[in-house]
Amino acid sequence: MKIYHSIKDIQRDILAQKARGLSIGFVPTMGALHRGHLSLLERSVKENDISICSIFVNPIQFNHKQDLEKYPRSPEEDCKKLDNAGCDIVFAPSAGEMYPEEVKEHYDFGQIERVMEGEHRPGHFNGVAVVVKRLFDICMPHKAYFGEKDFQQLAIIKALVEQQNMSVEIMGCPIIREGDGLAMSSRNVRLSPEERSIAPAIFKTLNQIQQKAGQEPLQETIRKAKAYLNSLPGMKVEYIQITDEQSLMPVESWDDANQIRAFIALFLGDVRLIDNLKIIYGL
Length: 283
Ligand code: AMP
Prior knowledge:
The protein is α/β, with parallel strands linked by helices. Helix content is 39%, strand content 20%. Helix 8 (151-163) links the parallel strand 5 (143-147) and strand 6. The longest helix is centred in the middle third of the chain and has 16 residues, at 124-139. The protein is globular and about 60 Å long. Bound molecules: adenosine monophosphate.
């Protein structure tokens, strides 16, 4: 496995691989890797000749300085895990390498960037779009892999690729969970043992929403879900939304429902967690 820190060096290598007709799969990450990340890489390894994984804690997508500072970093362990999982190339640039000058790009993705994460984390998706566009330009992948854990981000990336006429194919991958249902996240290591024992309530609540679908008014389901989570020690719900999967606009009642998904964002102590579940209803 090769590890590059410079754009020039990785590009030289990728251009040589492409000249040989090899297909390139790409998995962008912020490191502190877990089995969720590795599931994306494993899929890339299966579907491409060469798999690249980037590790870059992107400062411009953090809207709280503290969150950026406390973001877990484990570069050596990450590289071991990637090597074992069959990764060919790691790209781990510095912030100076990615952003030699002030970032000026401003993207507009319309309503999908104004709800949920977009509403609660101002500037977040612009930061994501800027870094992903640069990483795609550098790595020139045929396919790029993103988790449904960040479902709204996946929608933003698809919109970015369409808007910019990029030829990369975006592959959405299922959420990988711990045995007790907690969605794997790099931030989970920041939970105290007590918080960690409470955290599975998020997935439990998503499943309760699934069970209630069509059984009671949708707003009632959301209200009860919020009240339950807010009653747990240290939990503070930021939002619970049930939206159309395409537009990401909230649905008002179960009868409006077509392809819908439930989303939860909350703080557990000072750790922000998100999760979501496709809601199957009325089939
Ligand atoms: P991050 O390092 O948090 O930026 O995540 C890098 C990629 O891994 C993103 O496409 C995430 O959606 C994906 N990812 C993170 N956690 C999970 C998970 N539990 N299951 C599947 N994919 C995930």
